[in-house]
Every structure is written in C-alpha cells, then in structure tokens.
Amino acid sequence: MTELLTEGVPPLTTPLDPARYDRFRTGFHAVTGFGQRLLAARLVAVDALPAPGGTVGVEQLRDRFGVLPQYDRLCHALLDILDRAGYLRRAGDRFEVTDRIPEVTGLAADGVAAAEADRLREAYPEVAGYLPLLTTCQARLVEVLDGRVPANEVLFPGGSADLVSAVYRDNVQLDFFNQLCAERVQSHVRQFLQRYPRGYAEVLEVGAGTGGTTGPVLAALGEWADRLRYLYTDVGPVFLRLARRQFGAGRPYLDFARYNVEGSPDDQGFEPHSVDVVLASNVLHATERMASTLVNCHRLLKPGGILVVNEMTRRLDYNTLTFGLAEGWWRYADDEARIPYSPLLDGPGWRAALEQAGFTGVELHGVPVVDPVEQVQSLVVATATGRH
Ligand SMILES: C[S@@+](CC[C@H](N)C(=O)[O-])C[C@H]1O[C@@H](n2cnc3c(N)ncnc32)[C@H](O)[C@@H]1O
C-alpha cells in the first residue's frame, strides 16, 4: 500500500519491495556523494577554487570561464552543492574554501573517476544506471558552461539517448511511480465507465516522450479497449513518429497529436473540457510558468476529470549535476513557485499551484516508509472543477 499523504482518498496498492528500495536509496546516496566529490575535484582541476581559506563567488566562475548567462542559476546551484557537501562554507555572498578540499585531489583525472565509478557500480547495482551520465556530465562541465559544447551533445552524444535511458532502465523508483500512475488512471477510468455505461473514456497524455509511463498505463487500460480514446501528445514531433511505431499497432483507440502544454488547447485544435484524464509524467516542471500550464491542463478536462502528475518533488544534487546542464532545466520564470535552485515543486507547492488553477481534492502519493517531506518523487492527482 502506498503512503497516502492526503486524507479521504482510498490508498493505491502498487507494491514496492522495501528491501530493494532501501538498497536503491543507499546506493543513490553514495552516487550523490560521488557527484559532489567529482564537482569539487573538477573545479579544483581547472583552478576555479583557491586554496583552503580563500573565497570564491559566482562572479569569479562567471569571469574565469566566460559562463553563458543562461547558466547563471546553475553556477549558484553548484556552489550551493559544495557548501552543503562541506567543501565550501558560505560567507556572506561568497564562499570560503574549507580544508576538506584536498580530499578530492586527483579525482577529476579520467582513470581515477572511472575506477571510483566501477567500485560504486559493483557495490550498488541498483543505481548503476546513474553513473555513466554523471561522470560524462562532470567531465564536460566547464565546456558546457562556457558554451564550447552544447549540453545536448553531452546528454545525447551523437543524438543517442543511451546515457539518459540508462537512468530509467530497471529503476525501482521510476518503475514504481509509473505503475502508480497506471493504477490511478485505471481506477478513474473504471469508475467513469461504470457510471456512464454507454460512455467513452478520454485520456490525453502530455509530454509522453519516449512513452516510459505510457506502456504501463496502456497495459492497465487494456480491458476497456473498446470504450477508450487515448491521445498520445508531445511538443516534439519526432517522439510522435517513434511512438506510433512502438505503440500504434493493434490499438485503434490510440491517436497521436502535437500539443504544447504551455499554450491553450483551444489554439491547438483541442476541444476544451473534453477529456477525463490528463496524464503528465516528468514534463510539467519543464514549463516556464506553472500557473498557466495548470490552467491549460484544467481547460482540457471535463468537470470532475482528473489531472495525474508524476514529478520529482525534491531537489537532488544528482539532477543538478546532470540534467542541470540542459538549458531547459533553468528556463522557469516563476521562482516563487519552485524549490530553490531547481525547476521542481514540492508537495505543498503542487497543492497550492493546483488549487490556484481551479483544481480541488488534491492527492499526494509517495513511497511507503519515506517521510512525506522527503518524497523524492510524487504522484499528484487533482480534480477539475467547473468550466473555465
Ligand atoms: C523527461 S521527458 C518525459 C517523457 C515521458 N513522459 C516519461 O516520463 O517517460 C519530457 C518530455 O516532455 C516533453 N515536453 C517538454 N516541454 C513540453 C511542453 N511544453 N509541452 C509538451 N511536451 C513537452 C519533451 O519533449 C519530452 O518528451
């Protein structure tokens, strides 16, 4: 049974192996420490940090490396990581280098970092998929900051998604949340079709991308194939072409369309208030203004329809050190709604933003055994009210 963080809604029952999840959490903690050490080592290796006792600030990084303006927030976030990790100590608006910095000397050398990554891979197989992306991103950090190499070339070398896909493969946490999405969508569709025996359930997935969440959701909806319409959307047309090949065969209820959730559905050919479930997995954080994104989602929904959001709800240094290299990670324009140094919202932040956009009955689901405020990922569900 999942931890139910909201009163009055039946808990979901997607299982999670506690021992496996515990090993995952321990391993992820070790990977995070490695990432922090790699960052410190990389900055020492390029002479960005003075000797212990000296001070550094974002301006020095900016001037020393000609950091692109779009990475200003990333620089602040990186110094914040080193502060929390104990390699720097905040001193006003600058940071003093601590005497722990010699601990990381030499780690930036390729062979040394690779050996440490190998050791972690063996010790913590549950998180092995996180390591190649981390070591690659940290090795190329300065070239990305100063614009010599586009971040996309580091995250998707030669257009390949292998580095990023490795993070998602056999990931106990991500698998659990995808399954949780499937269970929650299924329960709403079941309820709707029982109430309207001649009706069709309409599901619209936003930012479906490579379909990591779509697969489990479609499997959970299989028994209603003849009473279902599933619209697979993304802002990127390439994803739609690939998805048609991957999911299209034998599913006449599945359709594909381009949709940018930052824009009104009316302007993009979608009928307002026509959908029973809007599903958005790991996409909404990437939008510029959460308030208008949520209003757009609300407009798609029938009154009583639900928005199902699968999102990270805590800032993780791992994400800053990897996905943080992508300009898109920092494009949000509503800092007050986000967790500091990240594009993410926490549980209370989601609740407030959803209620502001006209939703009600906000549910927050997380993993069992983890404290509500420590949920790294959450399933957030909210019900649309009237037509506006
Ligand atoms: C991190 S991927 C998540 C993909 C998929 N939902 C999953 O969880 O496996 C984010 C996806 O959101 C899409 N996306 C980003 N901004 C968007 C927007 N404004 N409207 C619609 N889709 C967007 C991207 O093209 C990408 O496919």
TrEMBL record:
Q: Which residues form a coiled coil?
A: none
State the UniProt keywords alphabetically: Methyltransferase, Transferase
What are the GO BP annotations of this UniProt entry?
A: methylation
Q: Name one GO molecular function term.
A: methyltransferase activity
Give one Pfam family, short name only: Methyltransf_12
Q: Which InterPro entries match?
A: Methyltransf_12, Polyketide_Synthase, SAM-dependent_MTases_sf
Q: Which part of the chain is the Methyltransferase type domain?
A: 204-307
Stored PANTHER family: POLYKETIDE SYNTHASE 37, POLYKETIDE SYNTHASE 44-RELATED
Q: Name it.
A: Methyltransferase
The organism of origin for this protein:
Micromonospora echinofusca
Q: Lineage in the entry?
A: Bacteria, Bacillati, Actinomycetota, Actinomycetes, Micromonosporales
